[in-house]
Design a protein that fits this description.
Keywords: DNA-binding, Transcription, Transcription regulation. This is LysR family transcriptional regulator. It comes from Pseudoduganella rivuli. This protein has 310 residues and is α/β, with parallel strands linked by helices. The protein has 3 domains: 3-87, Arc Repressor Mutant, subunit A (Orthogonal Bundle); 92-156 and 272-307, D-Maltodextrin-Binding Protein, domain 2; 164-268, D-Maltodextrin-Binding Protein, domain 2, CATH 3.40.190.290. 45% of the residues lie in helices and 20% in strands. It is built from 12 helices and 11 strands. It has helices at residues 3-15, 18-24, 29-43, 59-87, 99-104, 106-116, 129-137, 184-187, 202-209, 226-234, 248-252, 283-307; strands at 48-50, 55-57, 92-97, 121-126, 143-147, 157-172, 192-194, 219-222, 239-243, 256-258, 268-276. The strands form 2 sheets. Strands 3, 4, 5, 6, 7, 8, 9, 10 and 11 form a 9-stranded mixed beta sheet that branches. Strands 1-2 form a two-stranded antiparallel ribbon. Helix 1 crosses helix 3, helix 2 crosses helix 3 (29-43) and helix 6 packs across helix 12. The longest helix is centred in the N-terminal third of the chain and has 29 residues, at 59-87. The radius of gyration is 25 Å and the shape is elongated. It starts with a helix and ends with a helix. The relative contact order is 0.14.
Length: 310
């Protein structure tokens, strides 16, 4: 069975059109039709029902194409692995990062990668974990680092725990909340600035603020870009819900100050590395993860040390 013909059948199933599929695989439409007919003759079954307008997968075709899709995935992985073995280096890496890791560990990680591997081409995507997981499964990323608590275990991915970052409530220097004893009721007078909260964190935040679980949180600004959230908080009376590790620079230079709120130790992010199961990593991805682990250890140690200071 010619694997090219299997790829042709997958293209027809995806496009639901011989004309569009022919463009996708760079064949003429007659040549694609002959390829599909030959495959059907080899299998002894019809894969597609055809009429003048539509192409539909038959019930037998659906079974075949489901297996063929897995085979195509494995074949792409095999071709990729062999190319890496031939080249001996793998001069690029594409990975993703959620909002908090992007702010806390990725900048230093990138500095070290550029310093130690100046020839490595680095592509970084920042987004929420749902979008990153879609891109990972689409083979656009080799791995991503994000809060993994809401990610359901699946046979096609591997999740490696990396570190935990605890939550903090922060305001600009000179904020009215810093001038008087803090009460939780006072926080409700000011809007929250926050990333998209993980589902498992929302009940904890409701509890801390004393808000019924079925009521909306007072989120005035929601964004998955930490620099924008910091900018907005520094220039307004918003209260920022973030992790201390994600805003160390703004804390160090005095732009932000932490509020002393009980219960925030329960609000945390469990950051981990997510990658495709069984997929051989490129040399670039291997060194990127090594540096990532190094920076993560340094970042966690710095935050813990900072908390212990009087």
């Amino acid at each position: 069975m010619d694997f090219k013909r299997i790829r042709h059948a997958l293209a027809v199933a995806e496009e639901k059109s011989f004309a569009r599929a022919a463009d996708k695989v760079n064949l003429s439409q007659p040549a694609l039709s002959r390829s599909i007919q030959t495959l059907e003759e080899e299998l002894g079954v019809l894969l597609f029902d055809r009429d003048n307008r539509n192409v539909n997968v038959t019930s037998v075709g659906a079974v075949f194409l489901a297996r063929a899709k897995k085979l195509a995935y494995e074949m792409r992985g095999l071709e990729r692995d062999m190319a890496l073995l031939r080249s001996g280096d793998g001069g690029s890496v594409a990975f993703g990062a959620g909002p908090f890791p992007m702010a806390s560990v990725v900048p230093r990680m990138t500095d070290l990668l550029r310093e130690r591997h100046p020839g490595l081409r680095i592509s970084i995507t920042t987004n929420n974990w749902r979008q990153l997981l879609t891109q990972l499964r689409g083979e656009q990323l080799e791995f991503f680092i994000a809060d993994t608590r809401d990610i359901e275990p699946a046979p096609d991915i591997t999740i490696t725990p990396l570190f935990r970052q605890h939550g903090a409530l922060l305001v600009r220097t000179g904020h009215p909340l810093l001038d008087r004893p803090l009460r939780l009721d006072d926080l409700l007078d000011y809007g929250l600035a926050s990333v998209t909260l993980p589902e498992r964190v929302r009940p904890l935040v409701h509890r801390i603020f004393g808000i019924p679980q079925d009521a909306a949180l007072p989120v005035a600004l929601q964004c998955d870009q930490i620099p924008l959230l910091v900018h907005a908080t520094v220039n307004s009376d918003l209260v920022l819900l973030a992790t201390q590790a994600a805003v160390t620079e703004a804390l160090a230079d005095g732009r932000l100050a932490m509020l002393d709120v009980r219960g925030l130790s329960d609000v945390s992010t469990d950051v981990g590395i997510v990658q495709l199961f069984g997929r051989t990593m490129s040399p670039g991805a291997v060194v990127a993860i090594e540096v990532l682990r190094e920076v993560a250890e340094q970042t966690v140690a710095t935050v813990v040390h900072g908390r212990q200071q009087p």
